[in-house]
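Listing S7. Sequence submitted for prediction.
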Amino acid sequence: MPDLEQPQTSRGAATYRRILDAATAEFARHGIAGARIERIVKSARTNKAQLYAYFGDKEQLFDTIFLNSLERITDVVPIDADDLPGWAVRLYDEYLRRPDLIRLATWTRLERRPAGHLVETHEHYDDRKLTAITEAQAAGRVRAGDPFDIMAIVIAMSMAWSPVSNVYAATSEEDDHVHAERRALLRDCVRRATAGDGDTPAG
């Protein structure tokens, strides 16, 4: 990977941020193959030379944006293995706030990695989650089973109404009571699916 220029001034940092924002919207809407650098630089009010200096080619620009999106979800919605239902609900809310992030992951699955882990560096994003689940399992708060599969099922349930749902994609414009009902259902389903011996759900 070539050495890339980093913004040295506040003006450069502002341009860098505009490129990131414009490219995030472009890739989320059109995918990797369908995204166009011309549209990105026009929206960011810059030029190709500046974009390439900061990010390299289109593939590298997507890498930056996608990995930033994974970092955001990890930081904004950290796992709480003692409250997996609550974690699922917080993920649901994050998809409402930032539907573009889940679309980026879907384009990655469709265009780059149709099987296996979504990213090669999955350990960076998964290890803390898996450790937390393993510890909760040892304490009887989460059911037995492969911690990775437990994590996967909770994330999958949180995405039931996500922007890439094959059934129904929720939006933040829907009535609050609709979201409240979904959150309650999601919380209960995750609780029942993941309860350990020391937290057996009623019913």
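Caption to Listing S7: primary sequence and predicted structure tokens for the chain studied. The mean pLDDT is 92. The chain has nine helices and no strands.
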